[in-house]
Design a protein that fits this description.
The strands form two sheets. Strands 3, 4, 5, 6, 7, 8, 9 and 10 form an eight-stranded mixed beta sheet that branches. The chain is an alpha+beta fold and about 170 residues long. It has a domain of about 120 residues: Nucleoside Triphosphate Pyrophosphohydrolase, CATH 3.90.79.10. The protein has four helices and ten strands. It is globular.
Length: about 170
């Protein structure tokens, strides 16, 4: 039986983020087609990064990753996807945000080809979060703690998090 999320339509894009055509999300993964994914790193007013530990049935199970990540649906803007995914994954409606960049992340995981055009944001809030089913817990980290853990215990973090740090926060690797 297919889940409703498998039937979502997503836009296949080229490397310049131009829409080529739309497909069912499941087909995009089966065929390794490049499609957009919104990501958001939650940062509190003290500058701490809140990361979630992925549930056992997700990509990067048991690893820390950014708390918000999901597909941008066909016809949906980046900000609409950011707001929807933030509500679904951490229960926040009221937050401020900042665009960070764009990057392509590809890998084979969970028996499928993920070929994602990442569109990361930072979101800012001190409100208590309410985790959705994709995460089992969360923890806040200072940038210095993340920097040290990336060096000393890199396996604590998921592959997509490592990609994001390398692409968008290289100072954490110095």
């Amino acid at each position: 039986m297919k889940k409703n999320s498998d039937l979502e339509m997503v836009d296949v894009v080229n490397e310049d983020n131009k829409i080529v055509f739309s497909v069912v999300k499941q087909d995009a993964h089966k065929k390794g087609l490049l499609h957009r994914t919104i990501l958001a790193q939650l940062i509190d007013s003290k500058g701490k990064w809140i990361l979630v530990k992925q549930a056992s049935d997700r990509q990067d199970p048991g690893s820390y990753v950014v708390p918000v990540g999901g597909h941008i649906r066909t016809g949906e803007s980046e900000v609409e996807a950011l707001r929807r995914e933030t509500l679904e994954e951490i229960g926040l409606k009221d937050f401020t945000y900042k665009f960070i960049g764009r990057g392509i992340f590809s890998r084979r995981v969970l028996g499928r080809e993920e070929n994602h055009y990442f569109i990361p944001y930072e979101i800012y809030s001190d409100k208590k979060i309410n985790l959705g089913p994709e995460a089992e817990s969360y923890k806040s980290f200072t940038k210095e703690e993340i920097k040290k853990l990336l060096k000393d215990k890199p396996k604590l973090f998921g592959n997509a998090f490592h990609f994001g740090v390398k692409a968008f926060y290289p100072n954490l690797l110095k």
